[in-house]
TrEMBL record:
Organism the protein comes from: Streptomyces cinereoruber
Lineage of producing organism: Bacteria, Bacillati, Actinomycetota, Actinomycetes, Kitasatosporales
Family designation: Belongs to the acyl-CoA dehydrogenase family.
Keyword Flavoprotein among record annotations: yes
Protein's UniProt name: Acyl-CoA dehydrogenase
Pfam families named in the record: Acyl-CoA_dh_1 (PF00441), Acyl-CoA_dh_M (PF02770)
Keywords: FAD, Flavoprotein, Oxidoreductase
Cofactor needs: FAD
Domain Acyl-CoA dehydrogenase/oxidase C-terminal: 238-371
SUPFAM superfamilies: Acyl-CoA dehydrogenase C-terminal domain-like, Acyl-CoA dehydrogenase NM domain-like
Any one Gene Ontology molecular-function term assigned to this protein's record: acyl-CoA dehydrogenase activity
GO annotations of cellular component type: cytoplasm
Length: 382
Protein backbone atom coordinates (compact mmCIF):
# COMPACT_ATOMS: atom_id res chain seq x y z
CA UNK A 1 0.00 0.00 0.00
CA UNK A 2 1.56 3.33 -0.94
CA UNK A 3 -1.38 5.78 -0.73
CA UNK A 4 -2.42 7.00 2.72
CA UNK A 5 -5.67 5.33 3.84
CA UNK A 6 -8.34 6.97 6.05
CA UNK A 7 -6.29 6.29 9.16
CA UNK A 8 -3.21 7.95 7.72
CA UNK A 9 -5.26 10.82 6.34
CA UNK A 10 -6.46 11.53 9.89
CA UNK A 11 -2.85 11.39 11.09
CA UNK A 12 -1.75 13.76 8.33
CA UNK A 13 -4.52 16.24 9.15
CA UNK A 14 -3.66 16.25 12.86
CA UNK A 15 0.08 16.54 12.24
CA UNK A 16 -0.54 19.48 9.90
CA UNK A 17 -2.52 21.23 12.61
CA UNK A 18 0.17 20.65 15.24
CA UNK A 19 2.85 21.74 12.77
CA UNK A 20 1.35 25.25 12.71
CA UNK A 21 2.81 25.71 16.23
CA UNK A 22 6.20 24.60 14.91
CA UNK A 23 6.02 27.23 12.18
CA UNK A 24 5.10 29.95 14.68
CA UNK A 25 8.27 29.26 16.68
CA UNK A 26 10.56 28.40 13.73
CA UNK A 27 12.56 31.59 13.39
CA UNK A 28 13.02 32.07 17.12
CA UNK A 29 14.24 28.49 17.52
CA UNK A 30 16.61 29.04 14.62
CA UNK A 31 18.09 32.04 16.44
CA UNK A 32 18.24 30.27 19.81
CA UNK A 33 17.97 26.45 19.62
CA UNK A 34 17.74 26.24 23.42
CA UNK A 35 14.20 27.63 23.20
CA UNK A 36 13.07 24.05 22.54
CA UNK A 37 12.99 23.73 26.34
CA UNK A 38 10.06 26.20 26.36
CA UNK A 39 8.22 24.21 23.69
CA UNK A 40 7.85 20.87 25.46
CA UNK A 41 4.12 21.38 26.02
CA UNK A 42 3.30 21.86 22.34
CA UNK A 43 1.06 18.94 21.34
CA UNK A 44 3.27 18.08 18.35
CA UNK A 45 6.41 17.98 20.54
CA UNK A 46 4.60 15.82 23.10
CA UNK A 47 3.48 13.50 20.31
CA UNK A 48 7.07 13.14 19.04
CA UNK A 49 8.36 12.45 22.55
CA UNK A 50 6.82 8.96 22.48
CA UNK A 51 6.44 8.45 18.71
CA UNK A 52 8.54 5.35 18.03
CA UNK A 53 7.88 3.58 21.33
CA UNK A 54 6.59 0.13 20.24
CA UNK A 55 3.01 -0.58 21.35
CA UNK A 56 4.24 -3.34 23.69
CA UNK A 57 6.16 -0.76 25.77
CA UNK A 58 3.83 2.22 25.46
CA UNK A 59 1.71 3.09 28.45
CA UNK A 60 -0.54 5.08 26.15
CA UNK A 61 0.35 5.04 22.43
CA UNK A 62 -0.19 8.46 20.80
CA UNK A 63 -3.77 8.73 19.56
CA UNK A 64 -5.46 10.75 16.83
CA UNK A 65 -9.23 10.45 17.04
CA UNK A 66 -10.04 6.74 17.31
CA UNK A 67 -6.65 5.69 15.94
CA UNK A 68 -3.46 4.83 17.82
CA UNK A 69 0.00 5.24 16.32
CA UNK A 70 3.23 3.96 17.78
CA UNK A 71 5.44 5.29 15.00
CA UNK A 72 7.14 1.99 14.26
CA UNK A 73 5.78 1.83 10.72
CA UNK A 74 7.72 3.61 7.94
CA UNK A 75 4.71 4.89 6.04
CA UNK A 76 3.24 6.37 9.22
CA UNK A 77 6.52 8.06 10.01
CA UNK A 78 6.81 9.48 6.49
CA UNK A 79 3.29 10.95 6.63
CA UNK A 80 3.77 12.57 10.05
CA UNK A 81 7.28 13.85 9.56
CA UNK A 82 6.61 15.48 6.20
CA UNK A 83 3.92 17.57 7.89
CA UNK A 84 6.03 18.43 10.92
CA UNK A 85 8.99 19.36 8.70
CA UNK A 86 6.74 21.57 6.58
CA UNK A 87 5.96 23.37 9.86
CA UNK A 88 9.59 23.47 10.92
CA UNK A 89 12.37 20.96 10.41
CA UNK A 90 14.42 22.45 13.26
CA UNK A 91 11.64 21.92 15.80
CA UNK A 92 10.93 18.43 14.44
CA UNK A 93 14.52 17.34 15.04
CA UNK A 94 14.91 19.26 18.29
CA UNK A 95 12.01 17.43 19.94
CA UNK A 96 12.84 14.89 22.65
CA UNK A 97 11.95 11.26 22.05
CA UNK A 98 13.32 7.88 20.96
CA UNK A 99 13.93 9.06 17.39
CA UNK A 100 16.72 7.16 15.57
CA UNK A 101 17.88 5.47 18.75
CA UNK A 102 14.39 4.02 19.19
CA UNK A 103 14.61 2.25 15.84
CA UNK A 104 18.00 0.82 16.80
CA UNK A 105 16.90 -0.32 20.25
CA UNK A 106 13.73 -1.91 18.82
CA UNK A 107 15.90 -3.81 16.35
CA UNK A 108 18.83 -4.78 18.60
CA UNK A 109 17.64 -4.58 22.18
CA UNK A 110 16.56 -7.66 24.09
CA UNK A 111 13.31 -7.55 26.09
CA UNK A 112 14.92 -6.05 29.21
CA UNK A 113 16.89 -3.42 27.28
CA UNK A 114 13.80 -2.33 25.36
CA UNK A 115 11.79 -2.10 28.54
CA UNK A 116 14.56 -0.04 30.16
CA UNK A 117 14.96 2.37 27.24
CA UNK A 118 11.34 2.79 26.17
CA UNK A 119 10.24 2.98 29.81
CA UNK A 120 12.39 6.09 30.14
CA UNK A 121 10.86 7.58 26.99
CA UNK A 122 7.32 7.17 28.32
CA UNK A 123 8.15 8.39 31.85
CA UNK A 124 9.07 11.94 30.73
CA UNK A 125 10.15 13.76 27.54
CA UNK A 126 13.75 12.63 27.19
CA UNK A 127 16.33 13.54 24.58
CA UNK A 128 18.33 10.83 22.91
CA UNK A 129 21.05 10.88 20.30
CA UNK A 130 22.41 8.42 17.75
CA UNK A 131 26.19 8.65 17.58
CA UNK A 132 27.66 7.00 14.50
CA UNK A 133 29.48 9.65 12.44
CA UNK A 134 33.10 10.39 13.31
CA UNK A 135 35.47 13.13 12.22
CA UNK A 136 36.81 12.14 8.77
CA UNK A 137 34.63 9.02 8.71
CA UNK A 138 31.21 10.32 7.69
CA UNK A 139 30.04 8.55 4.56
CA UNK A 140 32.27 5.54 5.28
CA UNK A 141 30.76 4.73 8.67
CA UNK A 142 32.08 1.15 8.59
CA UNK A 143 35.60 2.58 9.07
CA UNK A 144 34.69 3.97 12.48
CA UNK A 145 37.45 4.03 15.08
CA UNK A 146 35.76 4.62 18.45
CA UNK A 147 36.72 1.70 20.67
CA UNK A 148 34.77 -0.32 23.24
CA UNK A 149 37.25 -2.10 25.49
CA UNK A 150 37.64 -3.68 28.87
CA UNK A 151 39.81 -1.34 30.99
CA UNK A 152 40.24 -1.32 34.78
CA UNK A 153 37.45 -3.87 35.12
CA UNK A 154 34.96 -1.71 33.23
CA UNK A 155 33.68 -1.52 29.65
CA UNK A 156 34.86 1.84 28.31
CA UNK A 157 34.24 3.91 25.19
CA UNK A 158 37.09 5.96 23.77
CA UNK A 159 36.94 8.10 20.65
CA UNK A 160 35.08 11.00 19.04
CA UNK A 161 31.78 11.50 17.24
CA UNK A 162 30.73 14.50 15.20
CA UNK A 163 27.60 16.08 13.69
CA UNK A 164 25.35 14.19 16.08
CA UNK A 165 21.87 15.70 16.48
CA UNK A 166 20.95 16.68 20.08
CA UNK A 167 24.33 15.41 21.35
CA UNK A 168 24.61 17.92 24.18
CA UNK A 169 20.95 17.61 25.20
CA UNK A 170 20.68 13.83 25.13
CA UNK A 171 20.26 11.92 28.36
CA UNK A 172 20.80 8.62 26.53
CA UNK A 173 23.04 8.02 23.54
CA UNK A 174 23.26 5.02 21.29
CA UNK A 175 26.91 4.82 20.32
CA UNK A 176 28.59 2.67 17.66
CA UNK A 177 32.06 1.46 18.57
CA UNK A 178 34.60 -1.15 17.63
CA UNK A 179 35.61 -4.13 19.74
CA UNK A 180 37.99 -5.52 17.09
CA UNK A 181 38.98 -4.85 13.44
CA UNK A 182 36.60 -5.69 10.60
CA UNK A 183 32.87 -5.28 9.95
CA UNK A 184 31.86 -7.85 12.58
CA UNK A 185 33.82 -5.95 15.21
CA UNK A 186 31.32 -3.09 15.43
CA UNK A 187 28.85 -2.98 18.32
CA UNK A 188 26.19 -0.52 19.44
CA UNK A 189 25.71 0.38 23.08
CA UNK A 190 23.27 2.41 25.13
CA UNK A 191 25.10 5.04 27.12
CA UNK A 192 23.85 7.17 29.98
CA UNK A 193 25.35 10.55 29.09
CA UNK A 194 25.81 11.36 32.76
CA UNK A 195 28.51 8.73 32.72
CA UNK A 196 31.94 10.22 33.45
CA UNK A 197 33.92 10.51 30.22
CA UNK A 198 31.02 11.67 28.02
CA UNK A 199 31.53 15.25 26.87
CA UNK A 200 29.34 16.86 24.21
CA UNK A 201 29.24 20.35 22.85
CA UNK A 202 27.04 21.88 20.18
CA UNK A 203 28.62 22.94 16.88
CA UNK A 204 27.56 26.14 15.22
CA UNK A 205 25.67 25.37 12.04
CA UNK A 206 23.92 27.21 9.24
CA UNK A 207 21.05 24.80 8.64
CA UNK A 208 18.65 22.84 10.86
CA UNK A 209 20.00 24.79 13.82
CA UNK A 210 17.25 23.47 16.13
CA UNK A 211 18.78 19.97 15.95
CA UNK A 212 21.89 21.39 17.64
CA UNK A 213 24.30 18.99 15.96
CA UNK A 214 27.28 18.47 18.19
CA UNK A 215 30.59 16.76 18.75
CA UNK A 216 31.14 14.14 21.39
CA UNK A 217 34.37 13.17 23.09
CA UNK A 218 34.37 9.75 24.72
CA UNK A 219 37.15 9.66 27.22
CA UNK A 220 36.84 6.19 28.71
CA UNK A 221 33.09 6.61 29.25
CA UNK A 222 31.80 3.64 31.25
CA UNK A 223 29.11 1.50 29.62
CA UNK A 224 27.00 -0.70 31.87
CA UNK A 225 27.54 -4.31 30.76
CA UNK A 226 23.85 -4.94 30.32
CA UNK A 227 23.59 -1.98 27.92
CA UNK A 228 25.52 -3.63 25.08
CA UNK A 229 22.90 -3.98 22.34
CA UNK A 230 22.47 -7.19 20.38
CA UNK A 231 24.12 -9.32 23.07
CA UNK A 232 21.51 -12.01 22.36
CA UNK A 233 22.23 -11.94 18.59
CA UNK A 234 25.03 -13.37 16.47
CA UNK A 235 27.89 -10.91 15.65
CA UNK A 236 26.66 -10.80 12.03
CA UNK A 237 23.29 -9.38 13.22
CA UNK A 238 24.71 -6.56 15.32
CA UNK A 239 26.84 -3.55 14.54
CA UNK A 240 27.18 -2.52 10.93
CA UNK A 241 24.40 -4.83 9.73
CA UNK A 242 22.10 -3.26 12.31
CA UNK A 243 23.12 0.27 11.33
CA UNK A 244 22.36 -0.53 7.67
CA UNK A 245 18.93 -1.87 8.68
CA UNK A 246 18.24 1.19 10.79
CA UNK A 247 19.26 3.47 7.94
CA UNK A 248 17.04 1.52 5.53
CA UNK A 249 14.12 2.00 7.90
CA UNK A 250 14.78 5.67 8.46
CA UNK A 251 15.65 6.70 4.91
CA UNK A 252 12.04 7.24 3.76
CA UNK A 253 11.55 9.38 6.88
CA UNK A 254 14.53 11.55 6.00
CA UNK A 255 13.16 11.80 2.44
CA UNK A 256 9.85 12.91 3.95
CA UNK A 257 11.66 15.60 5.96
CA UNK A 258 13.22 16.94 2.76
CA UNK A 259 9.83 16.81 1.08
CA UNK A 260 8.37 18.84 3.94
CA UNK A 261 10.99 21.54 3.34
CA UNK A 262 10.20 21.54 -0.41
CA UNK A 263 6.47 21.76 0.35
CA UNK A 264 7.01 24.65 2.77
CA UNK A 265 8.98 26.63 0.16
CA UNK A 266 6.35 25.89 -2.47
CA UNK A 267 3.50 27.02 -0.19
CA UNK A 268 5.52 30.12 0.71
CA UNK A 269 6.02 31.22 -2.88
CA UNK A 270 2.38 30.54 -3.73
CA UNK A 271 1.29 32.70 -0.82
CA UNK A 272 3.73 35.56 -1.39
CA UNK A 273 3.53 35.56 -5.19
CA UNK A 274 -0.14 34.80 -5.64
CA UNK A 275 -0.32 36.96 -8.79
CA UNK A 276 2.35 34.95 -10.69
CA UNK A 277 1.60 34.81 -14.43
CA UNK A 278 3.07 33.13 -17.50
CA UNK A 279 6.36 31.30 -17.07
CA UNK A 280 6.51 32.03 -13.36
CA UNK A 281 3.06 30.56 -12.77
CA UNK A 282 3.95 27.48 -14.86
CA UNK A 283 7.19 27.01 -12.93
CA UNK A 284 5.33 27.11 -9.61
CA UNK A 285 2.75 24.62 -10.88
CA UNK A 286 5.39 22.21 -12.17
CA UNK A 287 7.21 22.32 -8.82
CA UNK A 288 3.93 21.45 -7.09
CA UNK A 289 3.39 18.46 -9.37
CA UNK A 290 6.93 17.26 -8.80
CA UNK A 291 6.43 17.48 -5.03
CA UNK A 292 3.28 15.34 -5.37
CA UNK A 293 5.11 12.82 -7.56
CA UNK A 294 8.03 12.64 -5.12
CA UNK A 295 5.59 12.10 -2.25
CA UNK A 296 4.22 9.07 -4.12
CA UNK A 297 7.79 7.76 -4.48
CA UNK A 298 8.55 8.35 -0.78
CA UNK A 299 5.40 6.46 0.24
CA UNK A 300 6.20 3.61 -2.14
CA UNK A 301 9.72 3.43 -0.73
CA UNK A 302 8.40 3.49 2.86
CA UNK A 303 5.99 0.64 2.06
CA UNK A 304 8.83 -1.32 0.42
CA UNK A 305 11.03 -0.94 3.52
CA UNK A 306 8.11 -1.96 5.75
CA UNK A 307 7.48 -5.03 3.59
CA UNK A 308 11.01 -6.25 2.82
CA UNK A 309 13.53 -4.16 4.79
CA UNK A 310 15.25 -3.19 1.51
CA UNK A 311 16.27 0.45 1.34
CA UNK A 312 17.25 0.73 -2.33
CA UNK A 313 14.09 2.47 -3.49
CA UNK A 314 14.32 4.62 -0.38
CA UNK A 315 17.72 5.81 -1.64
CA UNK A 316 16.05 6.99 -4.85
CA UNK A 317 13.36 8.71 -2.78
CA UNK A 318 15.87 10.37 -0.46
CA UNK A 319 18.10 11.57 -3.32
CA UNK A 320 15.14 12.92 -5.26
CA UNK A 321 13.46 14.61 -2.28
CA UNK A 322 16.71 16.33 -1.24
CA UNK A 323 17.34 17.56 -4.80
CA UNK A 324 13.79 18.86 -4.94
CA UNK A 325 14.11 20.61 -1.58
CA UNK A 326 17.17 22.45 -2.79
CA UNK A 327 15.64 23.26 -6.15
CA UNK A 328 12.32 24.45 -4.72
CA UNK A 329 13.83 26.63 -2.01
CA UNK A 330 16.20 28.28 -4.51
CA UNK A 331 13.45 28.65 -7.15
CA UNK A 332 11.23 30.32 -4.54
CA UNK A 333 13.99 32.88 -3.92
CA UNK A 334 14.41 33.57 -7.64
CA UNK A 335 10.68 33.90 -8.15
CA UNK A 336 10.12 36.28 -5.26
CA UNK A 337 12.83 38.89 -5.70
CA UNK A 338 16.45 39.30 -6.78
CA UNK A 339 17.46 39.54 -3.10
CA UNK A 340 14.69 37.49 -1.50
CA UNK A 341 16.72 35.89 1.28
CA UNK A 342 17.34 38.96 3.46
CA UNK A 343 13.75 40.15 3.07
CA UNK A 344 12.16 36.70 3.56
CA UNK A 345 13.87 35.21 6.63
CA UNK A 346 11.70 32.09 6.65
CA UNK A 347 12.64 31.34 3.05
CA UNK A 348 16.28 31.97 3.88
CA UNK A 349 15.95 29.41 6.66
CA UNK A 350 14.33 26.89 4.31
CA UNK A 351 17.27 27.24 1.88
CA UNK A 352 19.71 26.54 4.73
CA UNK A 353 17.67 23.60 6.05
CA UNK A 354 17.48 22.03 2.58
CA UNK A 355 21.29 21.90 2.49
CA UNK A 356 21.39 20.29 5.93
CA UNK A 357 18.97 17.47 5.17
CA UNK A 358 21.12 16.50 2.17
CA UNK A 359 23.82 15.33 4.61
CA UNK A 360 21.57 13.50 7.04
CA UNK A 361 21.69 9.72 6.61
CA UNK A 362 24.04 9.92 3.62
CA UNK A 363 24.51 12.41 0.82
CA UNK A 364 23.05 12.09 -2.68
CA UNK A 365 26.25 10.48 -3.96
CA UNK A 366 25.95 7.74 -1.35
CA UNK A 367 22.26 7.23 -2.14
CA UNK A 368 23.11 6.91 -5.85
CA UNK A 369 25.72 4.27 -5.02
CA UNK A 370 23.18 2.34 -2.94
CA UNK A 371 20.51 2.61 -5.63
CA UNK A 372 22.99 1.35 -8.21
CA UNK A 373 23.67 -1.72 -6.06
CA UNK A 374 19.92 -2.35 -5.89
CA UNK A 375 19.61 -2.06 -9.67
CA UNK A 376 22.58 -4.38 -10.24
CA UNK A 377 21.26 -6.99 -7.86
CA UNK A 378 17.78 -6.80 -9.41
CA UNK A 379 16.24 -5.94 -6.03
CA UNK A 380 14.81 -2.71 -7.42
CA UNK A 381 13.21 -2.41 -10.86
CA UNK A 382 14.96 -0.30 -13.53
C1 LIG B 1 21.67 18.11 10.14
C2 LIG B 1 22.53 16.91 10.33
C3 LIG B 1 22.19 15.96 11.28
C4 LIG B 1 23.01 14.83 11.46
N1 LIG B 1 22.70 13.96 12.45
C5 LIG B 1 23.52 12.91 12.71
C6 LIG B 1 23.26 12.06 13.83
O1 LIG B 1 22.29 12.25 14.56
N2 LIG B 1 24.13 11.05 14.07
C7 LIG B 1 25.23 10.82 13.30
O2 LIG B 1 25.96 9.87 13.58
N3 LIG B 1 25.50 11.63 12.22
C8 LIG B 1 24.68 12.66 11.92
N4 LIG B 1 24.95 13.52 10.88
C9 LIG B 1 26.17 13.31 10.09
C10 LIG B 1 25.89 12.78 8.67
O3 LIG B 1 25.48 11.44 8.75
C11 LIG B 1 27.17 12.99 7.87
O4 LIG B 1 27.29 14.39 7.67
C12 LIG B 1 27.13 12.28 6.55
O5 LIG B 1 27.20 10.89 6.75
C13 LIG B 1 28.27 12.71 5.61
O6 LIG B 1 29.49 12.59 6.27
P1 LIG B 1 30.54 13.82 6.24
O7 LIG B 1 29.81 15.06 6.66
O8 LIG B 1 31.73 13.42 7.01
O9 LIG B 1 30.89 13.99 4.71
P2 LIG B 1 31.95 13.14 3.86
O10 LIG B 1 31.71 11.69 4.05
O11 LIG B 1 33.31 13.67 4.14
O12 LIG B 1 31.52 13.53 2.38
C14 LIG B 1 31.90 14.78 1.78
C15 LIG B 1 31.51 14.75 0.32
O13 LIG B 1 32.16 13.63 -0.34
C16 LIG B 1 31.18 12.82 -1.01
N5 LIG B 1 31.56 11.40 -0.91
C17 LIG B 1 31.98 10.73 0.19
N6 LIG B 1 32.19 9.41 -0.11
C18 LIG B 1 31.89 9.26 -1.41
C19 LIG B 1 31.89 8.15 -2.32
N7 LIG B 1 32.25 6.93 -1.90
N8 LIG B 1 31.52 8.36 -3.60
C20 LIG B 1 31.13 9.58 -4.03
N9 LIG B 1 31.12 10.69 -3.22
C21 LIG B 1 31.48 10.53 -1.94
C22 LIG B 1 29.87 13.08 -0.27
O14 LIG B 1 28.75 12.86 -1.12
C23 LIG B 1 30.01 14.56 0.12
O15 LIG B 1 29.59 15.37 -0.95
C24 LIG B 1 24.16 14.64 10.66
C25 LIG B 1 24.48 15.60 9.68
C26 LIG B 1 23.68 16.71 9.50
C27 LIG B 1 24.05 17.71 8.46
Amino acid sequence: MSEPDGRLTALRGQAREWAADFRAAALELDRDPELIKDCLDLPGVRFLSTFGVPAAFATEPPAVGPYRFDGTNGLERAVVLEEFAAGDLGMTLAAPGPSMSGVLVAKLGDEEQQEWFFGRMTAAPTWTCFALTEPDRGSDASALGTSLREEDGELRLTGAKRYVGNAARARYATVFARTRPGPLGVTAVLLDTESEGYHAEPLDSLGIRGARIGQITLDGAVVARDRVLGRHLSPARRGIWASVQVFNELRPTVAALALGVAGAAHAYVREHYAGARGEDRDRIEVLGRRIDATRALVHRAASAVDATGDGYLASAAKARACALAEETTLAACELLAPAARPSHPLLDKLVRDARGVEFMEGTRNIQHLNLFQGLRSGKVGA
